[in-house]
Amino acid sequence: MDYSSVAKKVSHWCGRPGTFVLALGVIVVWVVTGPVFGFSDTWQLVINTGTTIVTFLMVFLIQNTQNRDTAAIQLKLDELIRATAGAHNALLDLEELDEKVLDQFRHRYEDLARIARDKRARGDTDTDSPEA
Asked: Is the whole-model pTM more than 0.90?
């Protein structure tokens, strides 16, 4: 069994409007049955247990989906960097670097942004490649 494809299918299904309507229907049925069961502790426990289980499972499903989306975005950004003339290939795969190295890159680009803003304030263009 391919767990990744199962998670992908379930997350796709859970994100559909019909699934929301189904969940809303379950809540409506639960509320309507309240008087039938005298609003008992068991009646309340049913919805609490059900929502706890669904929430627990959805946390992992959402994290899986977010991990997949983030990986895809990173790959697309890496390809844009790789395909852009003059771009720094050292920026590829930054998400795998430790915080110290990321901070060094961040400070360098903050400096470049500050220089560009200063140039714009003087009426100059800021569309150059500073290393060129």
From this structure: no
